[in-house]
Amino acid sequence: MTTSMPHDEPLTGTFSSSLAIRSMRVKGLILFPVLIALLVFAAQFASSTMALKLTLWISFAICALSLDFVWGKAGIFSFGQNAVFGLGGYAYAVVALNLFPTSQETISALLGAGLVGAVSSTLLGYFLFYSRLSDVSLSIVTLAVTLIIYTVLASTAGPEYHIGDALLGGFNGIPSLPGIAFPSIGSFGGEELSMHQLLTFAIVFAGLIYFLLHVLVHSRFGLKIEGLRSNELRMELLGYDVRKLKLTAFTIGGLIAGLGGGLFAAWGTFVNPSVFSLAQAATVVVWVMVGGRGSLLGAFVGVLLVQSAADAADLVVTEQTPLLVGLLLIGVVMLMPDGVVPTLTRWIMPARSRQRDFRIKLPVAKPGFANETPERRLSVTEIAKHFGGVHVLRGISAAFGEHPINAIIGPNGAGKSTFFNILTGRHRPDQGKVVLNGSDVSRMPTFLRCRRGLGIKMQVPCIFSDLTVRENMQLAAMISREAQDICDVLQRVGLSNRANEIAKTLSHGEQQWLEIALLLVQNPSVILLDEPGAGMGEEDKRRTIALIHSLSEQHTLIVVEHDMEFIRALSAPLLMLHQGIVFRSGAFEELVRDDAVIDAYLGRRSHAG
Amino acid sequence: MDAFVVILVSAVTAIATLILISTGLAVIFGLMRVINMAHGEFLMVGALTTTSLVLKLHFPWWLAMMVAPFVGAAIGGVMEILLISRIYQRDLVDTLLITFGISLIMFQLAVNIFGTTPPGIETPLGAMTVGSYSFPAYTLVLLVAALVMLSGLYLLFTRTKYGLLARATAQNPAMALALGVPAQRINFITFTLGCALASLGGAVLAPMISVSPSLGQAYVGQAFMTVVIAGPAFISGTLLSAFLLGGVSNGLSQGATTLWGVTGLFAMAIVILRFKPLGVSASWKRGL
Amino acid sequence: MSNEAKSAFVTGALTRRDAFKIGLAGAATIAMPSIVRAEDSSLHVASLFDLTGNLNIYGIQEMNVSRYAIEAINASGGVLGKKVVLHEYDTQSKIELYSRYAQEVGANDQITAVVGGFTGASREAARPVLSRNKKLLFFPTIDEGGECDKYCFMQGTDCVQQEGPLLDWAIKNGGKKIYVVAADYIYGHVANAWTKDLAEKKGATMVGTEFIPLDVSDFSATIRRIQAAKPEVIMSNLVGNNHVAFYRQFAAAGLNKSMQIVSPVFGLGNEEKVLSPAEGAGIVVAYSYFEGLDNPENKAFLEGFRKKYPEGGVVADTPAQVWNAWHQWKMAVEAAGSTEVGKVVAALEQAAPFKGPAGEVRLDPPSHRNIQNVHLARVTDKQSYEIIQRFDQVAPTREVVGAGACDLTGKDKSSHKMINPKF
Prior knowledge:
Chain A is built from 22 helices and twelve strands. With 609 residues, chain A is an alpha/beta fold.
C-alpha cells in the first residue's frame, strides 16, 4: 500500500486537491517551455542596451538562484555564494583562453565553470559541515573565505601567476575572453554568439537550470532538504546523515553558481577580483532577500527589482545609488521580510500557498510489526562520563529488553540527562559500552543508531513544524528499511484526519503523538522517551500512557520521567540514578517505600551512595 | 636589539588596532547576537568627526577624540530606536540586512558631506627613537587607548547595575524579562554603547591612517574575524583573539611580506575556527 | 528617437555634484542628442568615467574637462563642420560597467571614439571590447606600458617618461641608494621593473623593494625595513586611499627629514590636499601637466575652465590629457576627412603636433604614445606644487619590459593584443 490513500480522506477534499495538483503539474510541464519560447521571441525585439542588460541580469539571477536553493530550501546561510560565482567566472576564463584557439568553442569552458563551482563548494562544505560550526560562524567563515580569495587573486599580478595560457592578472583581472561559442557541427556554431543570440542562449540556459532545480526541489531529495531546513535534529533522529545532505545541497548550489559565473564572464569577456568583494557578497543576499528566499522564482524577481532600482536610482537622484538601495533594503526587511514573491503569493492566492506537491513514492510497507524480530535489547556496561573535572556518570550498567517498559528516575543532578544522551549518541562514554541488539554502538553517531533500530522521542516535540503531517511521515518512512504503512500508523495515534495540516497547527498533545507516529513508522526495536508526559493535561497524559502500553506490545521502551503518578501508571520496573550510579532498581512500590530513595530525592545527606 | 624593540612596537600596534576596531562589534554581537554590518561606518564616523573637529573648529586632537563616541552613540541610538528594536525577535539575517542597508546610507551621506578624499590630520606627538630606528610616539597612545577601552568595559560590566542586567539579558532573555528587567532599555544602551566604542576606535586611529568614507570597508572584514574568533567572552576573548590574529599577521608582515600578513590573518582565523568553532573563549568559565 | 539614442541618453547619467554650478551649457550639450539625432549631421563620441563611487574624484574632473573640450571644439566650428555629440556613461567605479558600456558603445554604429577609464583595470575591461568593434579609445591616465593596440591611444606618460627624469633628479639631489614601495598589482610590478632597469643604467642601487596590497594601511613593518636599509631616496608607486597612510606614518616617524620621496603617481588624486602641509612637503613628482605651468595655452585653458566650472578645483595631469585627446582626435578626423576609424588611425599616425596646455604633444607612431614635455614639481608647504625642472619632448618607450617592443606601424600590423611584461 503506498502513501496516497484516497479512501481515507473523506472530508478534507484532499483527493480532489491532489488531482488538482496533478493536473497543475501537467499544465506546468507544457506551460514552461511555452513560456520560455515566448520570452525568447520577445527577446529578439529588445534593443542592444536591453539585451546586454538582461543577459547580465540573467547571470546574476542564476547566482541568486543558487543562494535561494542553498539558503531558502536547505537552510544554509552562506555569505559566500558570490565567491563560487566568481570562481566559476575565473574557471571559464582559464579554460576558454586555453582551449578556444584550438576548439573554437567555449561550451567546455562553461561546463568547466560549473564543475569548479561544484568542486569548490564540496571542499568548502566539507570544512563547514564536518566541523560543527554554529550558524553564525558559518556565515562569517563563508565571508572570510570570500575575502581571502579576493586578497589572493588581487595579488596575482606577476607573469608567474598563470594557468596555461591564462595570466591571472592580479587586480587587473583577465581581459579579452572569448564569448559563448558552440562547437561547430556542420554549418552551425564555430563562432561567438552575437548580443541577441547570447540573450536567447541565456534565457534558455537559465530556464533549463530553473526547471531542473524545480524538479529536484519537488522530488524525494527536495523533501529531505525541506526536512533539513525545518528541523535538522529530527532529521538526524530519523537516521539521516545530515552532514552529507548539507554537503550535497551545497554542492548543487555551487554547480549552479559556477554556471552563472561562467555566463557572467562570457558576457563581459572579462573577469577581475571585484566580484569577490564584500559589497558583492552582500548584494547576492539582498537579491534573494528581496525576491523571497524559499521561492525559486524569487531569485529572478529579486535581481530584476534590485538592479532596476539601482539603475533607476541614478535617474531619480544622481550619484545617490547606495543610499537608495539602502533604503530599499530596509523597506523590504521591515515591511516584507519574507520577500516579494512569497508576500505577493500570500495576498493573491492565500490557499495556494498551503498546497504542496511532493511526488513521493514510497516502497511497499512491510506488513506486521517487530514481533517477528526477537531482539529488542539495549544494554549498557560500566558507563562513565565526565565533563572537565565533574564525573557525572560513575559506572552504570543495566540491561533493557526483558520487560517491555523500563523507567529511569532520579533526583536532580543524578545524571539522567547525561545518561539519556549517552544512549542517544549525543555524548560518547569515556568508558563502557552501549550495545543495541547485539552490536556495539558506543562510538556510533546518533543517526546511525537510529538506522539500527533506536527510536528517540525528545521532551519538547521535535517534529517538522512547517511541513504537513503527511510530509513528516514521508520523511520518516523514506529512510527506514522497515517502514510501516503511514495510514495505519496515523490511525493508531489518532491523527488520520489531520494528514494534510501543517504540523505547527496541531495542539501540543497532538504534536507529541505525531512525534511518536514518526518513530512508529520506522519500527524501531527500542524507543527512548524523554519525559513523554511533560506539559500535558490530565486527559492527554492518560492517552499517552495508554499509547505507551500499546507500544510496549511490539517495542522495548525506556522512559525517563519525573512525574511519579505517570510512572506509577506505567507499571514498569524502575532504575533509579543518583550521583552518577544506579542507586536502586526494582518495582515502583518497593522504591516508594525505601527511605534511602526518599532521602535522595529530598536531598538528605544520610545516604551518600 | 633596537630592531627587536621596534618589531615589538609594531606588533603591539597591530594588536591594539584590532582591539580598537573590534570591541564595539564584540559588545553588540556578544550581548545581543546582532551582526552590525554598519560597524565599519561607525569607525568612519568617529574618524571623520575627529578630523573635522580638528581641522574646521581647531579642537585639540585628544578633545576631538573624546567627542567622537558621542556622535557615534547618537547615530546608533536613533538607528536602534527606529529600526533595530523592532526586529530583535527575527532571524539573524534580518538584522544583518537592515544594518547593511544602513551602512550603505551612512556611506553615501558621508560622501555627500565630505567628498571621497577629505583632508586628514597629522600624527601628533612626533617620533620616538630607539637606536637607529624611529617610530611614531602616537603608537603608545593606541596601546593605552586599547587597554583603557577593555578595562573600562570590564569595570562597566562587572561593577555597574547596567552591566549586570545586560549580561543577564544576554544569557537568558526570557528569564530576565520575567524578572522585570527592562530589556528594551538595556538593549538600547548596549547597542548605543557598541556604536560609541566603534566611533572611539575610529577616532583614535584617525591620525595614523587615511580617513575617507570608504574607511569602514577597509576594516570591517578584520573586525568580523576578530569577533568571531573571540567567542562568547567578549572582553577577554577579544583580547586573546586580537593577540593571536594581530600577532600572526604582523609577524608574517615583518618576517616575510605584507601580503603574507594580510592573507595570514584570514588563514589563521580559519584554522582557529576549525578547532574552536565557537571561538577561543567558548569553553572558558569566565563569562566576560 | 530610437531606442539606442534614448537609452544612451538615459544611461549617460549627469553628475550633479556641482549641480547648480554646471549651468545650462552643460545641460544643452547633453540634451543635444535628442534634438540632433533625427538629422544625423553630427559626429558622435562617448566617454566612460567614474562619476560616482570610490574613484569619482578622478572621474568627475575628467568629465568636466571632457565636456569643456567638446564644447570648445563645437564653439570653434565643430569637426568637419559638424557638431560633436558626447554620450556620457557613468561607470560608477564598477569594473563590470566598463565592460557593459564598452559593449553598448561597441554596438552603437554612430559612436567612433571614446575617451575613458582611469585605472589599468578599467582600461582592460573596456579596451578589448572597443577594439574588437573598431572603436577608438584614448586613455588619459599615466600607466606602465605594455599596451599595444591599433585602436588604443595612450595619452598619459609612461614609466620611462616619468621615472627617467625623477631618477636623474633624485640621484643628483638625494643620493644613489633607492628603496621602492609599490602597490601590489600590475602597475606596481611593471613600474618596479622599469625602476630597476633605469636605476642600473644611471648607476644607482636598489636597497630594497616592497609590494603592498591595495587595502593595507599599516606600514609599520615597511617603515622598519626602510630604516634598516637606510636608503637616501624612496621611489613610491603606491596607489589608492589606503596607501596615503604610508606618507603619514613615514612623516610621523620623522623619516621625511632624512629621506627624499619621489613618485610618478602621487598627486593624481589630490593626495597633497589629503595630507597635511607638513606631511606632504618635499615630495617630488613628475607629470606632463601642472596647473602652475606658465604658457599662453595653459592660461587660456584654465581661464575657460574656471569660467565653466568656478568650483571645479585643481586640474591634475589626467584631466588635462583628456583635453589633448579630444583635440588630437579632432585634428586627425579633419586630416582624414572622415570619422572612419581606419582612416583616423592612419591620420593619427601621421603624428601632427598639437599645442596643449603642457606644451607640444606629438604621437610616436609605433607606440601610440605621445612625445611630450615632462615637468618635475615639488610639493610645497602650502599643499601646492612648485615646478623645479622641465624636460622637453621626452620620448615614450616602445619597449615592453622583458618582452620585446610594440610596433604598431611596423610589419606586425595585426598586433592587437597587450604584450604582457615579464618582470
